[in-house]
């Protein structure tokens, strides 16, 4: 395993992280909790130290399963969860709420579900523009002061929003979507994060399944799978015509992977980790075999000519946009 520093902080994390969105069992279809627990154990055995979850993943279920999986080994990992998203217990409708009171109560609930008295990193899940950032940052600072989080950060925050927030708190991370099909944040926010010493946590490095290479023109996504809508964080990558074009791009990327004697997922992860600003690539994991596959991305070397070829191939992608998700 390779380990990286989170921005300019002294928090050190595994370059491959364990993403727990799928563990919630609501957005990608049902999951087997025991398989997830076994995958967590296998990941730790392989040197994965960062585990990323959120209250809204399965409306608490992901945090509960991860807490059970970590058990007495919790002290050996970097545990990340989020705040600032609440949901209606009946309709499951979510809303952004980063008021001081919402953050403080949300953290208490998360700690209870996770079975711990602190997290290593607490992130605001999405920017709540209805609440002054000064109020939200005051809440995060108080969580640290109370010993309930070691470090704090944000997720899906723009360059301007980062600049505003660091006036009131020391942020160490911004978690954003980043993969070969989605380079919006790289252009809009990465330079600011580098200037401010904020590390990048890259979610969706396999483009939410597109870069696994397992989809075909016959693949159909059915609700509750969120990809059935065709739009992935504001990009219509999975809408029918775009999806078919993107599958052609994926086939070309498979050829590159074959020439490098590797797999497409490893190639895609290696591309994300090639960027030195990325502190961790978060891989959504369902089974132990998936983390066993993904960690080999650290062995893939991408020479300049290969990176240039990949850039050329990606010019054929469809559904991309420069507008960051709001």
Give an overview of the whole structure.
An 8-stranded parallel barrel has the order 3-4-5-8-9-10-11-12, surrounded by 4 helices. The model has no long low-confidence stretch (mean pLDDT 96). It is built from 11 helices and 12 strands. The protein starts with a strand and ends in a 12-residue tail after the last helix. The protein is an alpha/beta fold and 326 residues long. Helix content is 37%, strand content 17%. Helix 8 (240-259) runs antiparallel to helix 11.
Q: Which whole number gives the mean pLDDT?
A: 96
Q: Specify the biggest β-sheet.
A: 8 strands, parallel, barrel
Please compute the radius of gyration using only Cα atoms: 19 Å
Low-pLDDT stretches: none
Number of helices: 11
Give the CA-based shape: globular
Helical coverage, percent range? 25-40%
Distance, first to last CA: 34 Å
Q: Assess the beta-strand content as a share of residues.
A: 15-25%
Order of secondary-structure elements: EEEHEHEEEHEHEHEHHEHHEHH
Helix and strand content put the structural class at alpha/beta
**How many beta-strand runs?**
12
How would you write the strand order of the largest sheet?
3-4-5-8-9-10-11-12
């Amino acid at each position: 395993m390779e380990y990286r520093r989170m921005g300019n902080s002294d928090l050190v994390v595994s370059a491959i992280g364990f993403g727990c969105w799928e563990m919630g069992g609501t957005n990608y279809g049902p999951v087997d909790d025991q398989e997830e627990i076994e995958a967590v154990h296998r990941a730790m055995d392989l040197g994965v130290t960062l585990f990323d979850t959120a209250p809204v993943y399965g409306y608490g279920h992901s945090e509960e399963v991860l807490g059970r999986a970590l058990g007495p080994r919790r002290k050996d990992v970097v545990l990340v969860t989020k705040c600032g998203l609440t949901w209606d217990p009946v309709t499951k409708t979510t809303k952004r709420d980063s008021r001081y009171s919402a953050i403080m109560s949300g953290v208490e609930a998360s700690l209870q579900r996770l079975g711990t008295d602190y997290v290593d990193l607490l992130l605001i899940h999405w920017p709540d523009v209805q609440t002054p950032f000064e109020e939200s940052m005051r809440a995060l600072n108080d969580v640290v002061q109370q010993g309930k989080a070691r470090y704090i950060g944000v997720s899906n925050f723009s360059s301007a929003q980062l600049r505003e927030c660091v006036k009131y708190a020391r942020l160490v991370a911004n978690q954003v979507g980043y993969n070969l099909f989605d380079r919006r944040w790289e252009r809009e926010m990465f330079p600011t994060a580098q200037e401010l010493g904020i590390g990048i946590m890259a979610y969706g490095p396999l483009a939410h399944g597109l870069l696994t290479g397992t989809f075909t023109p016959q693949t159909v996504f059915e609700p509750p799978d969120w990809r059935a809508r065709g739009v992935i964080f504001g990009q219509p990558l999975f809408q029918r015509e775009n999806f078919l074009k993107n599958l052609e791009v994926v086939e070309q990327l498979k050829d590159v992977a074959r020439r490098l004697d590797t797999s497409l997922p490893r190639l895609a992860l290696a591309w994300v980790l090639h960027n030195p600003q990325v502190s961790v690539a978060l891989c959504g994991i369902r089974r132990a075999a998936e983390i066993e596959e993904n960690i080999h991305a650290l062995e893939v070397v991408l020479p300049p000519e290969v990176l240039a070829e990949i850039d050329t191939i990606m010019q054929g992608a469809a559904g991309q946009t420069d507008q960051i998700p709001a």
